[in-house]
UniProtKB/TrEMBL annotation:
Belongs to the small GTPase superfamily. Arf family. The gene is arfrp1. Coiled coil: none annotated. Keywords: GTP-binding, Magnesium, Metal-binding, Nucleotide-binding. This is Arfrp1, ARF-like GTPase. GO terms for cellular component: Golgi apparatus. Mg(2+) binds at T31, T55. Pfam families: Arf. PANTHER family: ADP-RIBOSYLATION FACTOR-RELATED PROTEIN 1. It comes from Dictyostelium purpureum (Slime mold). GTP binds at G24, L25, D26, G27, A28, G29, K30, T31, G77, N133, K134, Q135, D136. One of its GO terms (biological process) is Golgi to plasma membrane protein transport.
Amino acid sequence: MYSLLSGLWKYLFSKNEYFILILGLDGAGKTTLLEQIKTKYTKVPGLPPHKIIPTVGLNIAKTQYEEIKLTYWDLGGQSQLRSIWNKYFTDVHAVIYVVDSNDKERFTESKDELESIVCDPKLKGVPLLLFFNKQDLPDSESIEFLTSVFKSVINNQSLSSSEDGTTISRNVQLQSLIASKGEGISEGIKWLADNLRKNARTIEKTDY
């Protein structure tokens, strides 16, 4: 009986847990993505897209993916809120960055924000999942075009420097997304989980 209970305890409480930041400009679809992740990977469905309001602060979701626990922090993307993004960088294992494929006037702004994220030394080597959202809209740009826009950031930051002068590889995945319909999420989360299993950095445990 003791061994059975001990095994159950280890199964329930010894699973790996990873923290993931969801970032991007306001209106990119970050919270819609989070609610669809909840719908796919928890027993409680997330909010439908028409009930989602702009995030002012932080939304949190905890999910299970196979044997690992994933905790998502969705931060507001308004310009006045982006200054607090880096307060969370030390405590995360991966970053999801969401781009609105239809927001052509702000591609440069979005690219600049992404560059500031991946250049931050607190995120050295952290995997990056880049979602190009709203691919279902008729005027959205193609994945090929968006890849060319963000290519310079991705290529320059695939390697990040550490304090001792060595380089640390950063794994990057570009993924088409229709967050409102949940399309592209499974592929992206699978890639993320695979990378976290292989090379997630060690972070001191903190209660949130």
